[in-house]
Design goal:
Blueprint lengths: L1 H23 L5 E5 L3 E8 L11 H21 L5 H24 L2 E6 L8 H26 L1
Antiparallel strand pairs: 1-2, 2-3
Helix pairs in contact: 1-3, 2-3, 3-4
Length: 149
């Protein structure tokens, strides 16, 4: 149930925000929120992070299916009381699925958060990064407990 809540919430915000941006902006159009610091910029990203491996959509689809399968297998093995670890995996799953939906539907990922010093990204990307951070915290916590024992 916990996984479904995270998945539904992230996918709802991710997909609805991408729908709004792609229907309200033209490709490349930018709206300054805080001039020269934060803009909403509509980008169609045909690659991975930082636009790497552009137009390798089939490759990304295969990799994403594998990642989703691995996350689901690992998630099922994580004890219920390891909430931080389960949340991290849930966020990673939701982020992967959000961008996966774009690749299947559009052939590219819709990005729009533009901080001008970093490549443009979206809510699914944020979920993946936060999920990785939660996993790192959990790993550090677990290794600290192991040292104490």
């Amino acid at each position: 149930m916990y996984l479904l809540f995270i998945l539904f919430t992230v996918l709802m915000f991710d997909q609805s925000s991408k729908y709004f941006i792609s229907n309200s902006f033209h490709q490349g159009q930018s709206l300054p929120v805080i001039t020269n610091i934060f803009h909403i910029t509509y980008v169609q990203n045909p690659g991975a992070a930082f636009g790497m491996l552009a137009y390798r959509t089939n490759f990304f689809i295969v990799v994403t299916v594998l990642v989703i399968a691995i996350i689901l297998i690992v998630y099922r093995q994580v004890p219920v009381e390891r909430k931080l670890l389960r949340a991290g995996l849930g966020l990673q799953l939701a982020g992967a699925m959000g961008n996966f939906i774009d690749r299947l539907r559009l052939g590219y990922v819709v990005d729009f958060f533009d901080f001008r010093v970093w490549p443009v990204f979206n809510i699914a990307d944020m979920a993946i990064v936060v999920g990785v951070c939660l996993l790192a915290v959990e790993i550090l916590r677990t290794s600290e407990k192991g040292k104490e024992a």
